[in-house]
Amino acid sequence: MVIVLMGVAGSGKTTIGAALARRLGWPFRDADEFHPGANIAKMRRGIPLTDDDRRPWLEAIRASIAQYLSAREKVIFACSALKQIYRELIEVDAEKVRFVYLKGPPALIAERLAQRRGHFFDPKLVQSQFDELEEPQAAIDVDISSSPETIADSIVAALHL
């Protein structure tokens, strides 16, 4: 099984992913690891990524997910997956890849981004992510206002793990 934690920047994908990985004993991969240098440079400059920018990034994530599935290994990915076409690209196998949508109000997310240090994502870009976001229909929705451990527990329960 592959769990993909999705949502806009600042929704807690990495923090919750790490908590969930500890809880389940599964490996955790952050999709930020897969960004080409040009994408990181754009985001540092406050320039939103285009679909063309995201394509090689999503293809690399898809390839990694396919490797985990091929090896029959469980893994947790953190990936914004803002649009349905992005989710379809990385899904690989609808029965084995489960999306968890980390959902929260823009004010909470902006507050979290303002406190974040050492990340390449320019907080001014969060509105562009909300503008691009297509809320998923086939995902588990999770409210991000609780602690990471509580959220991880709710994900485990929702997925019957």
List keywords for this structure.
161 residues; alpha/beta; Rossmann fold; 5-stranded parallel beta sheet; 7 helices; 47% helix; 14% strand
Itemize the secondary structure elements and their pairings.
Elements: E1 2-6, H1 13-24, E2 28-30, H2 37-44, H3 51-70, E3 75-78, H4 84-91, E4 97-103, H5 106-115, H6 126-132, E5 140-143, H7 148-158
Helix pairs in contact: 1-7, 3-4
Rg over CA atoms: 15 Å
Q: What is the molecular shape?
A: globular
* Class per helix and strand makeup: alpha/beta
Share of residues in strands: 5-15%
Give me the number of helical elements.
7
Q: Provide the low-confidence segments as ranges.
A: none
Helix and strand element order = EHEHHEHEHHEH
